[in-house]
Structure formats: structure tokens, C-alpha cells
Amino acid sequence: MALVGYARVSTLGQSLDVQLEKLNGLPVDKLFEEKRTGVDAQRPALKQCLEYLREGDTLVVSRIDRLARSAEDLLRIVREFDGKGVTLKVLDQSIDTRDAAGKAFLGMLAVFAEFETNIRKERQMDGIAQAKAKGTKFGRKPALTPEVVSSIRTMREEEERTVPEIMAKTGLSKATVYRALSTKSEDAEG
What we know:
The protein has 190 residues and is of the alpha/beta class.
């Protein structure tokens, strides 16, 4: 029965020191650490940690957000632990899934985290709707403006350039160049 630690910070410029200090104060048998964003589902050290854990082991993290990127992710990880017979101990939030109270508290945290995420998404959608109502355009600017189409046609028809030459000169893809060449004159003007 191993005591396994996991520490993570989001960027290379951040320090793991505070988390490591807390974890090193425990009799940790194995410690996994990484500097990757929590949004990244492919965190190699977390993947290695999850593969390392065996029945009877306990994973220790300083805070719940160091382990999971969302409530859904947290619940998936905890379910995986339950299936393997692994417990989770969160130091800062005093969570220990060995007992019913710890499991209940973890479940409540997950519900509130999910609620917060949904509220944030609603605010974001409201902001986007307001910006659209004010005329803000979203997304990439179109590559094929009437001027670009005209320039591509001139290069092809008057300068007799090949498509690869046009691609090199404009930095556009082959598909975009062919799209410009097949665009009707009235489409390019509007």
C-alpha cells in the first residue's frame, strides 16, 4: 500500500515548491510532478501516476484542482480509483475518500464546480451575443477578399504564373488559390 503524490502547475514559469513542500512532509513512496495546463487531457505524469496506482494505494494532492481539469474529469478519475481500490486524499480541502464523509464532500465539490462552469459558460455566451448585437465579427478574417481574388487572377491570366508560384507569392493554400480562380466575378466583388 503506497502513498503516491501528484503535483502540477499550469505553466513552466510557475513553481511546484509549495505543493512539493506539503507532499514531502508526508511519507510519500512515489511522487509525480509536471508543468502542464489542467485543460490538457494528455498530461504524461498524471497518466503515469494513474497507471502506477494499485489496489490499496492512496493518491495525495495538495488541492483538488491540481488533479482534475473539471468536475466531470474529477468524477471520472475518482470512479477509476474506486474501480482499482485506490483512495484519494486532498490536503488543502481535507478530503479523504476512505470514508463516507470524504466521498460526500468530494461529490458536493464536483457539483459546485460543475455549477460554476455552467455559470461561466452562460456569461460567456451572453457576452458573445452582446458583441454580435453590436456588430463584432468573430472568427478568422476571410482570406479571399475581392482584392486578393483579383490579384490571383492577374497572376494566373496576365503573368501566366503557375498555381505553386501563386501559392508561394500569396502564402495561400492550393485549395484557396483554386477557389479564387473559380470564383465568379460578381462573387469576388461582393
